Amino acid sequence: MKSMSLENVRIQLGSAVILPDVSFDVKAGECFGLVGESGSGKSTVLRCIALLFSNWSGDIKIDGKSIREMAPFERCSTIQMVFQDPYGSLHPRHSVRTTLSEPLKIHKLDNHQERMEQAMIEVGLPVEFLDRYPHQLSGGQRQRVAIARALILNPDILLLDEPTSALDVSVQAEILNLLVRLREEKGFTYIIVSHDLAVVDHMCDRFAVMQQGNIVEVLPRSAIPSNDATAPYAKELIEASLVYERNL
Amino acid sequence: MTDPNLTPDIKKSSRLPEPVIALRNIVMFLLKHPTSAYGLLVLAALIILAIIGPLLATHDPYLQDLPNALQAPSGEHFFGTDELGRDIYSRLLYGTRISLTIIGIVTIVVGPIGLTIGTVAGYLGGRVDTVLMRITDIFLSFPSLILSLAFVAALGPSLYNAIIAISLTAWPPIARLARAETLTFRKTDYIAAAKLQGASGFRIIIKSIVPMCLPSVIIRLTLNMAVVILTAAGLGFLGLGAQPPLPEWGAMIATGRRYMIDSWWVVTFPGVAIFCVSLGFNLLGDGLRDALDPKQLNRR
Amino acid sequence: MQEPNSKPILSVENLSIRYRGTPQDAVRNVSFNLGRERLGIVGESGSGKSTVGRALLKLLPTADINADRMQFQDIDLLKTQEKDMLHVRGRQISMILQDPKFSLNPIQKCGPQVAEAYRTHVKCSKSEAKAKTIAMLESVQIRDPQRVYELYPHEVSGGMGQRIMIAMMLLTDPKVVIADEPTSALDVTVRLQVLDILDALVRDKGIGLIMISHDLNLVRNFCDRVLIMYAGQVVESLKASELGNAQHPYTKGLLAAQPHIGGSRDPLPVLERSPEWLKDVKVI
């Protein structure tokens, strides 16, 4: 179980400031949500943590160690990510077997077959699916493969970028259950980006509200049903979701 | 979009390797349409004739028989004889080998070079991209025939020099195409996932980007083959490609054109051969464009 | 709310749609009536809900549409030829699509697009159309209609783009509006605004609204009646206020599978699909 902290992370492209100054802490084993509207910068923060964007200033630390000081392979086995679009996150020409064995080959691990089967079982997919291609899988099944791929290197921290927003409601329930179960069993730390406060309420311990690259407020999960937010934007956002959910 | 939860399970029996299945699907698709079927048949015929051509020839293509020069097509000489009495039919058959050699070597050289330069430039971006693309621009700005002329003038006319000259000008469009495709694919989530796993740029380009660029590049190469045939024929016609007595089709037209008016068969049959092959590759390339459309490729 | 004695504006009986070259119907046995009310059609991907919407406007060139009845006021939609459908689409029956980024023409300014759509159906001068457009933009609560008139689609936000779309589609005073996932591409705060605007306009003008969505919450709060679709058929039809008492196991499963704010943290009940649901529904 590892903790993470972001300190004064800033990205500026030319004259556009995408993230002015982002700082927050995530406790070890916690599920931390990032909530905001489109353009709020929440996905950008995730990509900074994953070092998919590397032109940010400031520091991101895992258990006190800066991620920039970590060897690349150490980073890979600490932080992994699950992407939003199940139809874009798997290579269309790679079978599930290839998708899962690539990271094992890159890190020169042994026992490929065993590890892959283990990963498939953990995400609830039949082992026979190893020889299937993405176009032979449904959205929910693809997302499970994406989760298996993230798990196979045994990371400590999982970054989840709207993992269920492109899925049907019934499939979303399965994937959310899977993610909750995995966290309970393995003690992952999750950072989950979502625009859906119901998902955040279901899964997270704490969450941060973002607006235009700024963290407006960090709140505990209990603040949602009763709208205990103090910052006006956070209050507005939670209110809108509550109204949307309310029964007639 | 149908809910694939209702998709039946894949039968275990259809466990041929994926590339074989894809190839079979592509060939079946091509055979369904008359134009692309023609293209496929032309390619097949070219390959078969290159292999067994000599068995079907009725005469030695190099054997001169001056008393029988410029004979019209007959039972003995199917396509007639040329100005030195050589059997045109047999020369055409032996010429398929030359044509196939030209196409084969050019494609094998141009494909990988263009693909490499294009994908590396597209993926790495920045200065590498600029430098590689400016080099590509330089080669692109030469008309192929002029460059070939210069090359051959410097090194002397021969078939192999002609092939090298054609290759030098055929790779830039492939490089540009590969770069354009790479620019789209490099932003995808699966590439981001590969980076997150610690894959090196080299590995990502070879395993993830090249397979996605292949369909467009293959189509472009196929369409290119038609142009290559014509360019080689043009060079042969100018006396800069295959040298006599090699039965290269363009050279046959060049040497025969003096006798064209009275002995039409000397230039017509090689001309028809060039036309058929060129057209065939054009149609094959067109058909491949539809066959390699991702929606087609994914049908099982 | 629908006046019980009025004739329905749109009447569909036993609609079935099959894409040419496919072995099965994409939609079958669909029947409903639409009055001056808001009807929601809810389903997951592959349920056929968008297909039904497009079939009503005969926007499916590669499909065969069959029905016992597909009547819009006194027009038999089944028998209507393409050239006559051009007078129906956008004039009598309008459609609002999901993402204004893709449904507005990116190389034309917003205002002229709306005005042009109006002039296609109503004979008037350019300045008249412009005046009407600006008035309509104001009624969808765009505060600075003159300025927005001159903007390009990429220069406006998602919410504003969708409001422009609504303005375009309601300017010709249609009798029926089909909204296909009109708020899915929008943020939550903006969604409510857009829905309020649509609500007010539909009520004022007495328009029949068909709201196609995958979002049960939306349909529950916004519509009067709801049709639930699964695998091409309507499996349940009920009043939105009575969704809590749904009978069909699919509807119940769908309602239970969604996470709710303030709900328990137990695993969400997973929908168990039964092959029973694929059997032909009895035609009402």
How is this fold's topology laid out?
The complex is a heterotrimer of chains A (248), B (300) and C (284).
Chain A: E1 4-13, E2 16-26, E3 31-36, H1 42-49, E4 57-62, E5 65-66, H2 72-76, E6 79-82, H3 96-106, H4 112-122, H5 139-151, E7 157-161, H6 169-186, E8 189-194, H7 197-203, E9 206-211, E10 214-220, H8 223-226, H9 232-245
Parallel strand pairs in A: 3-8, 3-9, 6-7, 7-8
Antiparallel strand pairs in A: 1-2, 1-4, 4-5, 9-10
Chain B: H1 18-32, H2 34-56, H3 88-124, H4 126-140, H5 144-155, H6 159-185, H7 189-196, H8 201-237, H9 249-256, H10 265-291, H11 294-297
Helix pairs in contact in B: 1-2, 1-10, 2-3, 2-10, 3-4, 3-6, 3-8, 4-6, 5-6, 6-8, 7-8, 8-9, 8-10, 9-10
Chain C: E1 10-19, E2 27-34, E3 38-42, H1 49-56, E4 63-66, E5 69-72, E6 75-76, H2 82-88, E7 93-96, H3 100-103, H4 110-121, H5 126-139, H6 145-149, H7 158-170, E8 176-180, H8 188-205, E9 208-213, H9 216-222, E10 225-230, E11 233-239, H10 249-257
Parallel strand pairs in C: 3-9, 3-10, 7-8, 8-9
Antiparallel strand pairs in C: 1-2, 1-4, 1-5, 5-6, 10-11
Helix pairs in contact in C: 4-5, 4-7, 5-7, 7-8
- Share in helix of chain C: 25-40%
Tally the helices of chain C: what do you get?
Answer: 10
**E-strand count of chain B:** 0
Biggest interchain interface, per-side counts = A-B, 39 and 28 residues
Alpha-beta content class of chain B = mainly alpha
Mean pLDDT level of chain B:
85
